[in-house]
């Protein structure tokens, strides 16, 4: 397929020095907005395999961000563009995790998360800047919550500063927003081992993007739940899978697979499948296969 | 050396004043940041072999104050590394006052990073060596030391909290003693802003597990008085009802999750029976002491 003026989008290229760049090389804001809209359209309509589309948009959005930062543009529209780029990364985060199970693709996931993080941190700087002129984005709280939710995944890049410190620097109105309280609470439930509330809250309160973001982490959470139940349960009273599948919001067949991956033997008595606690063969697998989301059983 | 100390202190104070004025006239406050860069150079000049190096800790502390004020605490890392790799420095040579301030700030950084054992060591050092007349300094240290101590199971007396005006922790301590989950949540809620700003909110939030443990222990004690032979078995329903009485709605599944976690983390010894919905405590030492290890 050949390219054309209407199809070609400027590539990302690492600038070594700013002396070679001319003003005519940099796209102004309206053009960048059009570019974003075009890329967005591509994301939803392309017939190419997702990895290829992702790769293209990843590169081109990076170039858009570069043009924005060279011009030092910090205003509502620039923020809108950044918010859209992050949206792309989040949707990719979910789709890549679902479609890829091998190590090649997992490095794609890692790079995507890394870029998402960079983008989020730049966006937060921009939010901070417009606060000074008494303006704010109406999506702020949600985008701040993404940073918190990323702390659930292990091996997330650039988490050098602590979350405690990060909260201490945020305005109270953000930290106490609905979206942030959601993120803070499920992170707390995760650390406290309250899996029931963890999954219930996600099912009831997560926004669409929040759900996309946490989805790839869910199987790790479920594996930990199995670990606690296996460790602390009574050997002679088996834990039925149907009950677990309700609490952990995962389809029973997928739960069976997960148990097996963790080294848990499934016992069968009549129609019910269960696992007996205190199995010494249990081990938390790393890396874990990514889940296909929240399954809510219908009564 | 004293002259240098004076200069370092005045630079910071003047820069803070200058920034306040810049903000009031709508300009960008960059004087404190500049003071920081300047003091880094001063530090570099002192970090050499020779008698000058004893002054370096004082400058370090000024830098800490600047970085904490500006929120750029990641910049503390390089000075800390210089001080602690100790090729030019012997920590014991520094004046006590500077050591106390240094331990206070590095202790606070450890609190941010949730390294509670190290934070305990540093803040306790600061407390022990702090001038006993300086109540405001003692208060500052205790403000961060108390949450750390709570997380390893050491509770302060109310008299301590009253003496140093740290009553925001009073209800939290009470909730730990009583196993009162509702009180913990209320206390965290009431002081949320302040606790978040200090960076101790997450530390205190995690105390929830210890409060559950205390609650279970209380139920165990009550059961032991009523029917000693069956005391080590606690029906999960009883826990649900107790929590309900405290105004907290939790179903049996949720309680089971939490019990599983408490057992896993060795806060409770025993197991839970899923089908019978019973928590069975070990007959020996069902509530092992935390022993100074964070949960």
TrEMBL record, chain A:
InterPro entries: SAC3/GANP/THP3, SAC3/GANP/THP3_conserved. It comes from the Eukaryota. One of its GO terms (biological process) is mRNA export from nucleus. Residues 2-267 form the SAC3/GANP/THP3 conserved domain. Pfam families: SAC3_GANP. GO terms for cellular component: cytoplasm; transcription export complex 2. This is SAC3/GANP/THP3 conserved domain-containing protein. It comes from Aegilops tauschii subsp. strangulata (Goatgrass).
Automatic annotation (TrEMBL), chain B:
InterPro entries: Csn12-like, PCI_dom, WH-like_DNA-bd_sf. One of its GO terms (cellular component) is transcription export complex 2. It comes from the Eukaryota. GO terms for molecular function: double-stranded DNA binding; RNA binding. Residues 100-286 form the PCI domain. GO terms for biological process: poly(A)+ mRNA export from nucleus; post-transcriptional tethering of RNA polymerase II gene DNA at nuclear periphery; transcription elongation by RNA polymerase II. This is PCI domain-containing protein. It comes from Aegilops tauschii subsp. strangulata.
């Amino acid at each position: 397929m050949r390219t054309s003026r209407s199809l070609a989008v400027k590539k990302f290229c690492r600038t070594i020095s700013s002396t070679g760049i001319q003003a005519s090389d940099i796209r102004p804001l309206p053009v960048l907005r059009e570019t974003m809209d075009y890329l967005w359209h591509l994301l939803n309509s392309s017939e190419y395999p997702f990895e290829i589309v992702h790769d293209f948009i990843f590169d081109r959005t990076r170039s858009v961000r570069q043009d924005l930062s060279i011009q030092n543009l910090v205003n509502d529209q620039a923020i809108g563009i950044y918010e859209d780029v992050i949206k792309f990364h989040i949707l990719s985060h979910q789709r890549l995790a679902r479609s890829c199970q091998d190590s090649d693709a997992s490095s794609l996931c890692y790079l995507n998360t890394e870029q998402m993080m960079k983008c989020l941190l730049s966006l937060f700087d921009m939010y901070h800047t417009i606060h000074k002129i008494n303006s704010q984005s109406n999506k702020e709280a949600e985008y701040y919550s993404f940073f918190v939710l990323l702390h659930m995944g292990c091996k997330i890049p650039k988490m050098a500063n602590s979350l405690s410190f990060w909260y201490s620097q945020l305005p109270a109105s953000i930290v106490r927003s609905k979206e942030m309280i959601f993120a803070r609470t499920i992170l707390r439930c995760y650390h406290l081992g309250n899996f029931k509330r963890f999954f219930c809250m996600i099912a009831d309160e997560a926004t669409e993007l929040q759900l996309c973001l946490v989805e790839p982490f869910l199987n790790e959470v479920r594996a930990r739940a199995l670990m606690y139940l296996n460790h602390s349960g009574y050997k002679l009273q088996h834990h039925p899978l149907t009950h677990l599948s309700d609490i952990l919001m995962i389809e029973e067949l997928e739960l069976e697979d997960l148990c097996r991956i963790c080294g848990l033997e499934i016992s069968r008595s009549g129609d019910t499948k269960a696992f007996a606690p205190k199995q010494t063969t249990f081990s938390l697998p790393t890396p874990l296969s990514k889940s296909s989301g929240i399954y809510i059983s219908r009564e | 050396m004293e002259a240098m100390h004076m200069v370092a202190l005045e630079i910071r104070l003047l820069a803070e004043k200058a920034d306040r004025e810049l903000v009031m006239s709508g300009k960008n406050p960059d004087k404190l940041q500049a003071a920081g860069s300047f003091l880094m150079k001063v530090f570099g000049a002192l970090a050499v072999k020779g008698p000058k190096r004893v002054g370096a800790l004082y400058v370090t502390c000024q830098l800490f104050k600047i970085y904490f004020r500006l929120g750029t605490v990641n910049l503390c890392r390089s000075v800390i590394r210089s001080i602690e790799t100790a090729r030019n420095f012997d920590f014991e040579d520094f004046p006590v006052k500077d050591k106390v301030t240094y331990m206070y700030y590095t202790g606070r950084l450890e609190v941010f990073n949730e390294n509670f054992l190290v934070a305990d060591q540093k803040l306790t050092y600061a407390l022990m060596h702090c001038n006993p007349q300086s109540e405001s300094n003692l208060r500052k240290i205790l403000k961060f030391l108390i949450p750390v101590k709570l997380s390893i199971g050491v509770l302060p007396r109310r008299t301590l909290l009253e003496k140093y005006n740290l009553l925001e922790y009073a209800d939290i301590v009470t909730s730990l003693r009583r196993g009162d989950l509702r009180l913990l949540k209320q206390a965290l809620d009431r002081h949320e802003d302040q606790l978040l700003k200090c960076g101790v909110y997450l530390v205190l939030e995690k105390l929830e597990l210890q409060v559950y443990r205390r609650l279970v222990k209380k139920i165990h004690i009550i059961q032991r008085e009523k029917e000693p032979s069956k005391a080590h078995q606690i029906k999960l329903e009883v826990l649900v009802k107790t929590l309900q009485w405290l105004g907290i709605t939790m179903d049996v599944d949720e309680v089971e999750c939490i019990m599983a976690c408490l057992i896993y983390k060795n806060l409770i010894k025993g197991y839970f029976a899923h089908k019978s919905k019973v928590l069975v405590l070990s007959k020996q030492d069902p509530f092992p002491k935390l022993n100074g290890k964070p949960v």
